[in-house]
Specification:
heterodimer; A: about 90 residues; alpha+beta; four-stranded antiparallel β-sheet; 4 strands; about 20% strand; B: about 550 residues; alpha/beta; eight-stranded mixed β-sheet; eight-stranded parallel barrel; 18 strands; globular
């Protein structure tokens, strides 16, 4: 199961637009994607409420994990990229 | 006449249409398939509304709500909870399924907590749908004054707002969704207008969004007089530019209130002469731990760069009372408005304040900005001296204090002697002088700065300030009210700081009055026996 730790680029954290973009991408990925703080409980990245409830702030480290599947590695790269970007710039 | 809080100015006349929310009574039975199908239908409705509504901010809210309705984690909880075929009453199950997330978001505070109301809306909508009640939306086919208890983003999306002349709600506050939508559309709006739901559909009313008044059966003269006054105010606002001054040339500095970098940009856009109040709470409220000095320096630097060459008044952390910061205001207080808040935090979190002052000193180093540093909730000359000493020791030479308690106003001569300037926080000063909670709508008649007792407190303090040549300004909501702003100038105030959206109108109004008129209006208002009378006296003199 590929995973990677990434720092959140969005100034408002995973909230509003950045959270919506992430959730949409995760829901359309075709494989299960989870995110969470390293070492803590991970949540379904396709659930907006679960993502919001993590209360992720700008600069926080987030671990992204993607279930094994055909495109796991490219899905991981896409999700990591979304989390690292500041979408409000 | 019905009174509320005017949240978007403008005068219109039109027929009332009420948006009445139906209520579910009795148990609502449903099985899992029905619940999931209803959620999907709601999500699709919301998506359709998001596509059709023109307002960008409402679009985003609706799209996010659609995602919540389709949330897989909620579906999972519902699947776990509806074990037998059909639940006898789905209501507690739905409330539970969404409630867990709501609690978590509320606990996070700040931006995250704002989403909690979206969750409430989805669960209410779901229960209504399962009970066979369609949403409260109504189709507008002619120009209409829309009246409701409160308007949610989904309600406003369901309405054909092209035909909305004005929005009037019996509930809600100045920052409610209704206010934001109305300002976006440029139509008048009033919130907190109790009694408005008693108006019959079709009643022709005048809505004055500036004064927060709804009048049924207004005479033609009343209507045309209000419309021409409104037009005059708007025309003045559009015609006067540059630094604030009275008609006799007396300069009155006009500044912007800000809490974010975006607010500072808004102040730049309306040509404010600087920032008269930068609230630093947001950075602290948005974080679960104290923001580092580096994070603070980054924010303050951005503000200083945007306001290069201008005056920027930064207020140190005003946590506590209605803005608790969990890691700072950890102890439960019986009476937080009178507790450890503002500069009093030096008693419990001294290092936090020292680090903030350090960050301000670091951020201003080498910057072309006139930095004024201001402490909130200063009550005594000793507190003022302690603050001023710390600010000066870090090489910043303009410490000042908020005057927002009766003690500070009554002792202003000795307090201002310790610092370089004072700024009336009229919202808190009013709450403390009148001993009336400003968040309590039942007391809203008491919590206006027009009250002669509040004006007298300001008068006492500004007279002392003038004697020792220390400038005093106003940075509360009072400064955004043109008429009251002129009265404050008459009391001796030399700068006004307000929401950037109000600045052009205040600038336009001040250019139409001279110092003599401001002083006469102030004297008349001080002698009034009620807030209403003070406002009337001032209006009679200033709007001649």
């Amino acid at each position: 199961m590929p995973s990677q730790i990434v720092a959140v680029g969005s100034k408002v954290g995973l909230h509003a637009r950045p959270a919506s973009i992430l959730v949409k991408a995760a829901a359309g990925a075709g494989v299960a994607v989870t995110i969470g703080r390293p070492g803590e409980k991970a949540v379904n990245a396709a659930s907006l409420l679960s993502v919001l409830a993590l209360g992720v702030k700008n600069g926080d480290s987030i671990e992204v994990s993607v279930a094994d599947g055909e495109n796991s590695d490219s899905v991981l790269a896409t999700i990591v990229d979304i989390i690292a970007t500041d979408h409000d710039e | 006449m019905l009174k509320g809080i005017g949240v978007s100015p403008g005068v219109v006349v039109g027929p009332v249409r009420r948006v009445i929310a139906a209520e579910v009574s009795g148990p609502v039975p449903a099985n899992l398939d029905q619940v999931l199908a209803a959620l999907e239908a709601i999500a699709q409705d919301l998506e359709k509304s998001a596509e059709t509504i023109e307002l960008e901010i409402a679009k985003e809210v609706l799209a996010a709500q659609a995602m919540m309705a389709r949330d897989p984690s909620v579906a999972e909880v519902l699947e776990g909870a509806i074990t037998e075929g059909t639940a006898f009453d789905i209501r507690p199950i739905v409330i539970d399924a969404f409630g867990g997330f709501k609690e978590q978001l509320l606990a996070l505070g700040g931006y995250f907590a704002e989403r909690a109301s979206d969750i409430d809306e989805i669960s209410t909508r779901l229960i209504n749908k399962l009970a066979g009640i369609e949403s409260a939306g109504l189709t507008l086919t002619e120009p209409t004054v829309v009246v409701a208890e409160d308007l949610t983003p989904a309600d406003t999306a369901a309405l054909n707002l092209k035909f909305a002349l004005a929005l009037v709600c019996s509930h809600g506050g100045a920052t409610s969704h209704t206010a934001i939508v109305a300002r976006g559309l440029g139509i008048p709006a009033i919130v907190g207008c109790s009694g408005v739901m008693d108006l019959e559909d079709g009643t022709k009313v005048l809505v004055d969004g500036r004064h927060g008044e709804v009048i049924a059966g207004a005479s033609d003269e009343e209507v045309s007089s209000r419309i021409s006054k409104e037009d005059l105010l708007k025309a003045r606002a559009a015609s006067v530019t540059g630094p604030g001054r009275l008609s006799d040339g007396t300069p009155i500095q006009l500044l912007g209130n800000a809490g974010t970098v975006d607010d500072v940009r808004a102040a730049v856009a309306v040509d404010a002469e600087g920032i008269g109040l930068f609230r630093t709470e947001l950075l602290f409220l948005d974080s679960q731990i104290e923001p580092t000095v580096a994070e603070q320096v980054a924010l303050y630097s951005e503000v200083f760069e945007l306001m290069a060459g201008k005056k920027v008044v930064i207020r140190t952390l005003d946590a506590g009372s209605d803005k608790p910061v969990p890691y700072i205001n950890a102890i439960h207080e019986e009476n937080p408005a009178l507790g450890v808040r503002g500069w009093r935090l030096t008693r419990t979190s001294n290092d936090v304040l020292n680090r903030q002052l350090q960050a301000l000193a670091d951020a201003s180093k080498g910057k072309d900005v006139k930095l004024w540093v201001m402490a909130p909730m200063i009550n005594t000359p000793d507190e003022a001296k302690d603050f001023a000493d710390r600010v000066r020791a870090l090489g910043m030479d303009t410490p000042g204090v908020m005057i927002e308690t009766p003690a500070a106003a009554l002792h202003a001569d000795r307090i201002l002697a310790e610092v370089e300037f004072g700024s009336f926080g009229t919202n808190d000063l009013t709450q403390y002088v009148m001993a009336s909670d400003r968040m309590d709508s039942r007391l809203s008649d008491m919590t206006t700065a027009w009250h002669p007792a509040v004006l007298r407190a300001i008068s006492i303090a500004s007279a002392e300030a003038v004697k020792i040549s220390k400038p005093v300004g106003v940075c509360g909501e009072a400064a955004a009210n043109s008429l009251l702003a002129a009265v404050l100038v008459g009391l001796g105030v030399s700068s006004l700081s307000m929401a950037p959206s109000a600045l052009a109108e205040v600038r336009g109004f001040l250019a139409s009055v001279d110092m003599d008129a401001c002083r006469s209006a102030a004297t008349a208002a001080l002698g009034a026996r009620s807030a209403q009378e003070a406002e009337k006296f001032a209006r009679d003199i200033l709007e001649k």
